Amino acid sequence: MASNALIKLVPKSDQQDITLEELKGLFHYYKEITAKTGQQLGWNYDYSAFPYEIHNVVDAKQEMFYLKGTNNKYFAMILKIGKETILDEETEETKEQTYIQLILPNGATNGDKGKANEFCKFIAKKLAGELHLFNGRVMYFYKR
Q: Does the pLDDT value for residue 32 go beyond 70?
C-alpha cells in the first residue's frame, strides 16, 4: 500500500506557493551540498546521499515528477504539488493552501522511506513549512 507525507506551506512559511521547477531546484541544491560534504570527507557522498534520477511525468494532469532509484536498494518516490481549501481561524474565511506531497508507491523499499523522511525534513526546513510525516506525526519548521 502506498504511503505519503505532506509539507504544508502555512501562512507563516517563507513562501506561500511553489512550482515544480523550484522544487526540483531544491533537490539539485541538496545534491550540490552533499557533493561538497563528500569532497571535504574525500568520499563520493553525493551518490549515497541522493541515489535517484529526477524524471518528469508525461501527460500528467497534476503537477508532479518522480525520483527513480539508481540501484536495487531504492525503488522510487513521487512528488506532487497540490492545493487544499482551509478555513482561516482569524478571519473565518476560506483560502487555498499549497502543499507538497511525497508518495512512496507500492514496491518502495525501507531505503526509500528513510530517504523520503530525510528529503521531507530538508524541504520543510528550507521552506519553513509544516511537515506531516508518514507515521502521522507533525513537525513544525516555522516560527510559532
A: yes
